[in-house]
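for the writeup, i need someone to sanity check this before i put it in the appendix. the sequnce is what the collaborator sent (i think, or maybe the updated version? ugh). structure was predicted straight from it, no edits. if anything looks off just tell me and ill rerun, i have time this weekend
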Amino acid sequence: MSDLTHIGPDGRARMVDVSDKDDTDRVAIAHGFITVSEEAFELAVGRDTKKGDPIAIAELAGIMSAKRTADLIPLCHPLPITGAKVDVVPHPDQNAFEVVARVKTTGKTGVEMEALTCVSTACLTIYDMLKAVDKSMVIHGIELLEKSGGKSGLYRKPNV
């Protein structure tokens, strides 16, 4: 009926059975952006708001969310995350922050959803930390940049 792995032959949603797949080292890298006002940008790069350091807290929130992705995405397998790194990179020329997440595991299925969840959660955390001074922030451009491991091997987003 469909080439989508989460849709069974009967058209119903299903969790893919990965029990026959080999364990391989898997890595996924994703990124996204949050654009903020100049005032919010300065507060964040100053790393000292009433709520704390927005950048450090966003990086930690991203890592925490990678470990909980299966609790948020209904058909996502719970994975033993072996590594997660989140970097919030200021872009002063755009009053924006780029969030880059790299997630690793050794297992039967990839960590793309975990990396994307990392980025999303870190961006949302920055929003939460700064919303008192800027409610017009925009989260955008969340995408998978690279993934490796498994049957499909290496994927890198083509330069556009």
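DSSP finds four helices and five strands in the chain. The chain has one domain: 24-146.
thx in advance!!
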